[in-house]
Amino acid sequence: MPFTANRQFKKSPRMFVAAKDMHYTTSDGRQVLDGTAGLWCVNAGHARPRIVEAIAKQAAELDYAPAFQMGHPKAFELANRLVDLTPDGLDHVLFTNSGSESVETALKVALAYQKVIGQGSRTRLIGRERGYHGVNFGGISVGGIVANRKMFGTLLTGVDHMPHTHNIKQNAFSRGEPEHGVDLADELERIVTLHDASTIAAVIVEPVAGSTGVLIPPPGYLKRLRDITKKHGILLIFDEVITGYGRLGTPFGADYFGVTPDIMVTAKGLTNGVIPMGAVMVSKEIHDAFMTGPEHLIEFFHGYTYSGNPVASAAGLATLETYKEEGLLSRGAELAKAWEDGLHSLKGLPHVIDIRNIGLVGAIELQPIEGAPTKRAFSAFLKAYEQGVLIRTTGDIIALSPPLIISESQIDQIVSTLAGILKTLE
Ligand SMILES: Cc1ncc(COP(=O)(O)O)c(C=O)c1O
């Protein structure tokens, strides 16, 4: 099983057999409130009729069309809708099947772009400590989670990492963006000085690092990365696999922070998690740079059998329609205050060393048990599941990201369940 304690699971399986709106049903017939939108992806809640119907209809009408040298209308329609939704300056879309594939696609676009514009010496990629960019080789190379990297050899060469922005000492219990740390962006200048700008193709960061425990950037940090990358001809890639599609109360993290990257990586909420699909948005400048040479030749040697799959495209269109009809891409902003107040009410409970929140994302960081890191948070996860709330843990951090349809009373349920659990944890 993926990212699972296999032996523990098999001794005591946790199985979901159905889901509707905010709840899962377990194999023993219990309702579990979804505090994590599945894996940060079911932003509109479960089994939404418009999406279910679109998938069924599309599978009956056109189940598959070859992705290479052929097209079908829904992929183009979805690409156009995405271009309308993303910030100005992101004008073209490449489809993938996951966040990991979107990351690989973005990194390859960046390297190839530098080559086609005559900057072929720019081969270096810069990521960030504690970054998560999926599990493929490019993604783990630019990513900064040790456990995901250490077993897999030398990874991509020519990669460097900026420091992460997590700073409990100065920023613990910040509400929203933490005050300290904007100068950490200047580490990029140091890295540019070390390697020289002429060797660097792109910088990739998550606007808010999610999987590593909800690390929120200080005000001005992303803008500073934008200024430094622009100054040195380096592409800026935002990995918005978690922050995309309403998670922060805006369509994308780029909107929330007012910073537009050259390339945006998305997946998860694009299809509400129902059908695997990712999308990478690029600027017109990047797209146009490839559109040269004889017209019968392929311009970019990359793609997947299922890129822009018709059923996935139909699911994506129905998902965007659902978000629009129900105002879900801004609902996180409406609920952010109640969410923040609820989470921060847990301050002072045993083991809690930090609480963080932004939009409809939250994290509660626990003091690890000496000599047994992750055990305390995992035990909170198991207890919450028994008590009817699905949470996620990463290290000793509880991460929360409910569907954007959550009600205030359901926020209260998550908070009161956690309060009870924190009081009983070893
Ligand atoms: C920021 C980020 N990038 C990439 C990925 C990888 O996505 P996937 O699991 O769909 O490959 C994730 C998954 O959580 C993510 O959070």
Strands, helices and their partners?
Blueprint: H1 6-11, E1 16-20, E2 23-26, E3 31-34, H2 37-40, H3 49-61, H4 73-85, E4 92-96, H5 99-116, E5 124-128, H6 137-142, H7 146-149, E6 159-162, H8 168-171, H9 187-195, E7 200-205, H10 221-231, E8 235-239, H11 253-257, E9 263-266, E10 278-282, H12 284-290, H13 310-325, H14 328-344, E11 352-358, E12 361-366, H15 375-386, E13 389-390, E14 392-394, E15 397-400, H16 408-424
Parallel strand pairs: 3-13, 5-6, 5-7, 7-8, 8-9
Antiparallel strand pairs: 1-2, 2-3, 4-10, 9-10, 11-12, 12-15, 14-15
The structure holds pyridoxal-5'-phosphate.
Description:
- By secondary structure, the chain is of the alpha/beta class.
- The chain folds into 2 domains: about 5-50 and about 325-425, Aspartate Aminotransferase, domain 1, CATH 3.90.1150.10; about 50-325, Aspartate Aminotransferase, domain 2 (3-Layer(aba) Sandwich), CATH 3.40.640.10.
- The protein has 16 helices and 15 strands.
- The strands form 3 sheets. A 7-stranded mixed beta sheet has the order 4-10-9-8-7-5-6, with helices on both faces. A 4-stranded mixed beta sheet has the order 1-2-3-13. It has a 4-stranded antiparallel beta sheet with strand order 11-12-15-14, with helices on one face.
- Strand 2 (about 25) and strand 3 form a beta hairpin.
- It starts with 5 loop residues before the first helix and ends with a helix.
- The model has no long low-confidence stretch (mean pLDDT about 100).
- Bound molecules: pyridoxal-5'-phosphate.
- Pyridoxal-5'-phosphate binds near residues 98, 99, 103, 210 and 241.
